[in-house]
Amino acid sequence: MSDRSYGVAVALCGIFGIVGIHHFYLGNHLHGLFDLGLFLAAMACFFVLGFQGPDWFLLGILLLAVDALHTMIIFYRLITGQAHDGRGRRIAVPGGGR
User: By the 8 A CB rule, do 1 and 90 touch?
Assistant: First the structure.
């Protein structure tokens, strides 16, 4: 079992999920960098490249949608007790009995 708090992990995922903060908390640093990269790329498409044409804006929407879908999957895995920390230990659901 992981020594990371289930409540903190779920809260971070629910509030800052698309930025990837929960991955850094859980010790999954590469996963966190990937999430952060997706978010920053989407923001760059919206605010920097979006003025150069609608294609960049649509790419930003696609990147943000992929990031949001990934966050929903991770959130589901967290609340059902299927998520693991960076050392491969399961994040225990309080009162889960497992």
Answer: yes
> Which pLDDT tens digit goes with each residue over 61-77?
999 999 999 999 999 99
Task: Name the residue with higher pLDDT: 49 or 30.
Answer: 30
pLDDT digits (tens, 9 = 90+) for 24-43: 999 999 999 999 999 999 99
User: Domain spans of the chain?
Assistant: 8-79
Take residue 46 and report the two structure tokens written for it.
Answer: 């919206």
Handedness of CA 9, 12, 16, 21 (dihedral sign): negative
Nearest C-alpha neighbor of 25 from the set 9, 10, 39: 9
